Amino acid sequence: MKPRPFDYIRPDTVEEAVTLLAEYGDDARILAGGQSLVPMLNLRLVEADALIDVSRVAALDIIREVDDKKLGETIEIGAAVTQNKLLAWPQLSEKLPLVAAALPHVGHFQTRNKGTVCGSIAHADPSSEIPLTLALVGGEVVLTSQGGTRVLAAKDFQKDMLTTARAADELVAAVRFPIVKGGGIERGVAFREVARRHGDFAIIAVAAMMENKSTVRLGVGGMVGRPMVRRMATDDAAHAIAAWADELEGYEDLHASAAMRRDLFCNLAPLAVKEAIRCAA
Amino acid sequence: MRRVNRNERVRVGLTLNGRKLSAQAEPRTLLCDFLRQALGATGTHVGCEHGVCGACTVLIDGIATRSCLTLAVQAEGREVKTVESLAGADGTLNPLQQAFRDNHALQCGFCTPGILMSFTDYLARHPHPSESEIRDVLSGHLCRCTGYAGIVAAIKQAARGE
Question: Does residue B44 lie in a domain region?
Fold first, then answer.
């Protein structure tokens, strides 16, 4: 229950961090909040030659508005921003209502104090809340290396269970969520999940966001290796959800069979759709 | 930039309960083990060692943190507070501790230091929590003795300032 030995390096700047990543490549892990990485190190499920601790890089501890080429106005959240820092950000529910609904489901108060938003994205657990939220709102991931910066859509970033498009020398420097403006229909959001206990990893998580009065965008985590998103008509949502559940099949693990996952999804998703409709009204 | 190689032991300094202290640590030394074994502050308990049980929760710069998911070197230069910081020098319990005693909020006491530190942070930020908010924060801790009712009652009492 103690980690194997590793080098510990705490850069002060992004430049130092990406130089270290170029030096160590695959053998290094980025440490930010450590709420997923350190348990895996303690349990020796993961080995690393080096941990690069970016938690004190001031330039990464920033929540700011960024005008994005594709998405327009976005909120950019740096790699050192903790989940509780974002949750306590006064403009959160106004600008990112779905994030405000999803974040309280992420772990516990104590783990949100250290766990970072970008860390959840980089870890890419198939049932975790932040990647599902980013996928549903069509957000982006900002990757920085010595060669420069590239920006990937959430759907192009998370490939499969714990697998992303990040290259070994790239740092997940920030994520971008598009801003929801005014009192529009996109304020109609809902987030629901089923977990063994509150704060555990979800077995199934669903998120919903209204696109217009008759169309909802629905996302599901915990069915396949990455969050899936589909738009559907609100008046036929139950059928569309059932058909989608059969298509996705669902995976099986210690916590639930594939059939149970489909069943949970078919029961939970219509509730989220109803809640989003109510929330928009 | 701070760099420590894997087989190196370095001096890690931090402020523990108001006192500047330092001791040797490897990069992989967990903060909970550093506090208990290197600094002798054994009030912090180590349960699951993967962030689930909450027994090892301490404050780092006022923020409730799992010390089993924090490396000692990460706490370098920080202000760490443990359960030893709560009672007065003469052993007088602070209001939160007294409320735990009044409401039978502990039996074996293994989980108690972590719960006290979590709510020291939470109540400082949210002085008037609802019962459901208390239960939500408490879900980050496992107690196998009490069934939690006494703990909830104690925290409500402390929040009322009684």
Answer: yes
